[in-house]
Amino acid sequence: MDEEKKAQEPKTKNSRKFLMILAGAVLLCGGGGGWLALFSPWQIVDGHALLGMQKAPEIEKPEKEPQKFIYKMDPFIVNLSNSERMRYLKLKVEVESMEVKSNEEYEKRLPQLRDTVLAILTSKTSKEIMDSEGKTKLRNEIAARLNQLLTTFQIKTVYFAEFVIQ
Fold this sequence. Notes:
By secondary structure, this protein is of the alpha+beta class. It has helices at 2-38, 47-51, 104-122, 126-129, 132-149, and strands at 70-72, 76-79, 88-97, 155-165. Helix 3 (104-122) crosses helix 5. It is elongated, with a radius of gyration of 36 Å. The termini are far apart.
């Protein structure tokens, strides 16, 4: 039995030595490859130049339009003009102006602007504004009516940050 243990010990010692040598070789090759990649004296050749082909011309990207100023209104909670049963609309409106900075006229006319939006919302039924087409029409109507009130700047887009019908 002692002879069997002695016979197994050299095998495990040899296999450990082999694993250590193998791990060292892998680290040495990996380190050498990394050094070669970083400090290579060879120049990287473009594949197109190697084949004698021309690169496709780069497409110029159009410049992004600068972000316009967005005015936020407090949420609206209104009764819709449904005849069959009472429906409520909770709507948070944000309007984007054509200008890059804030305009004083918005703050001065905010009560009139809110009143106009309230009048528009209370005249709608839930069926009119339930689908995406109805929401788009509502956005356009709000923008047009608000632009009639404003004199020093115009509303470009109306956003609905929150839209809930109950």
